[in-house]
Amino acid sequence: MRKIILAATAVLTLATIGTASAQDGTVSGAAGGAVTGAIVGGPIGAAVGGIAGAALGTAIDPPPREVVTYVREQPVAAPVVVERKVVVGEPLPETVVLTPVPQHREYSYAIVNDQRVIVDPRTHTVVQIIE
User: What pTM value is reported for the model?
Assistant: First the structure.
C-alpha cells in the first residue's frame, strides 16, 4: 500500500511540475513513465520512469502545422520500402534518404512503405506519420 501511495505522489508531482514548464508530450511521457516505473520498480522505479518518460515525451512532440502541410503537399518521389513497420518514436534505417523541410531544418521527410513520415534528421527518428 505504501508503494502505491508513493508512486501516486510521484506521478502527481511530475504532472504538476511538468504542466508549468513543459509541453503536452513531456507531461504525458513523464506521467506514463512514472506509472510504468512504479509498477516495475516501486517508488525508485517511479522516479526513474518519470525522468525517462519525460525525455521520450519531449522527443516526439508533433511538428508545427506548416511542416505537416508541406509534407502532405509534396509529390510522391522515391518511395522506400523497409521490412519493418514504421512507428513514431522509432528510427528509420540509416539507408532511408531524407528530404529536408525548407524553413524547418529540424525536420525532414520520406515516403516509407507508402506512408509519408516526418523525421528528426539528426536521429532518423519518426516524429509523425501522415495519414
Answer: 0.55
